[in-house]
Amino acid sequence: MPEYAIEVENVVKDFRVYHRIYGSLKSKVTSLAKGLVRKEEHSGFEIRRALNGVSFQIKPGEAVAMIGSNGSGKSTLLSILSRVYLPTEGEARIVGRMMSLLELGAGFHHELTGNENIFFSGAMLGLMEEEVAARYDSILEFAGLDHQAMDLPVRMYSSGMQLRLAFSMAIHLDAEVLLIDEGLAVGDEGFQEKCFRKIEEFKSQGRTILMVTHELDHVERLADRVLWLNKGVLEQDGPVDEVLREYRRTYFS
Ligand SMILES: Nc1ncnc2c1ncn2[C@@H]1O[C@H](COP(=O)(O)OP(=O)(O)OP(=O)(O)O)[C@@H](O)[C@H]1O
């Protein structure tokens, strides 16, 4: 077994935020010529630093929650781990088969049917077609979706249906590392409870979870450890009770 399932080393992420151009092109060119626009506006964008030197490691079998106020960089970090974005500096590594539930539906191919998405994701995770077929009924059963729905393109699914299918695929297709971004907040209570129990089972099998959430009761129930991001910097990394005590003192007292 590798020492770490997830390793993040000094990750920096900068985004370019493009300025909106107001007024006519002629007036813009005239002001540029007269030197009326500041230098960074000449190039049409500014740099927004979403992550500023974040480092941590997660061992196989750990369930870690990432918390922090809006805009603190949580989704950006999960997107880097999911290879949606490259870091500007530093490195982010995952060892093992990873599945990510980023913002809803992000992992799906929307023009493909539910069926096709299941087999496609299975192949991406390195499973043979027969192996996916052997899990097919369990995927549908857990998701509470029928065969008819499976023949429709995923773009026709409601957000709840997408969540059910994505979560069910993640836990049945043998992912070793699961990244979840706020996903569970969308499901109804019954489905959430089913997901919690599955996540507990997933943990007990030595698999790794990193989840982003604003729901502190979900953190208390599922996580062994908490990462608190604040304005792109890791403010705290520690046991659930310690970090949440400090977090609540900062934001809720
Ligand atoms: N594609 C992008 N282009 C420009 N800026 C971005 C982009 N994605 C994120 N940002 C900026 O990076 C910062 C971190 O955003 P991020 O979505 O990672 O925060 P978050 O902690 O997940 O927030 P929330 O809790 O609201 O989901 C914010 O300032 C955001 O505006």
TrEMBL record:
One GO term describing the cellular component: membrane
Top-level taxonomic group: Bacteria
Gene3D superfamilies noted in UniProt: P-loop containing nucleotide triphosphate hydrolases (3.40.50.300)
GO molecular function (one): ABC-type transporter activity
Ribonucleoprotein listed as a keyword: no
Family matches, as Pfam families: ABC_tran
KW Ribosomal protein (keyword) present: no
UniProt keyword terms in alphabetical order: ATP-binding, Nucleotide-binding, Transport
Family to which this protein belongs: Belongs to the ABC transporter superfamily.
UniProt name for this protein: Uncharacterized protein
Organism whose genome encodes this protein: Capsulimonas corticalis
